[in-house]
Amino acid sequence: xxxxxxxxxxxxxxxxxxxxxxxxxxxxxxxxxxxxxxxxxxxxxxxxxxxxxxxxxxxxxxxxxxxxxxxxxxxxxxxxxxxxxxx
Length: 87
Description:
Elements: H1 2-12, H2 15-24, H3 31-50, H4 54-61, H5 66-83
Helix pairs in contact: 2-3
């Protein structure tokens, strides 16, 4: 049930949502980075939540700026730890 709710939520996420979320966490994304993160989120959300995202992060490291990468990975692990009990 939880997974279905999360899937429906992810389906509704827009590129603008990603940009706003980044901005609200002091991660200022260029349009190319938004496109990259949007694609990865839509394609790999289950891995991010339930699997090992390390290979995905390794690939993203070559596609986004170093600042975006470092802040993004830190934010991911902070949020995952904060909301783990809901997953």
